[in-house]
Amino acid sequence: MTEVDIIAVDPNVYQADDNQYPDDWQSETTSIGSSIYRGLMENGRRYQSLRSDDYLLPVDDPSFETYEAAHLLAIIMDSERDNPLFRAPIGENPTHILDLGTGKGNWAIDVADMFPTATVRGVDLFPPPITWMPPNCVLEVDDAIQPWTWKEPFDLIHLRIMTASWTDGEWDNIYKQCYDNLKPGAWIEQLEALAPIGCDDGSLPKDSILNSWGTTIMGSAERSGRGLDAMLTMTEGIRKAGFVDIHEKKYKWPIGPWPKDKQLKEAGMVNFQHWLSGLEGWCMYLLTKFGAPRPWTKEEVLVYVSSLRKELQNPHYHSYVRSKRVWARKPFPEEVAALKKKAAVEIKREE
Question: Residues 98, 186: contact at Cβ < 8 Å?
Answer without folding.
Answer: no
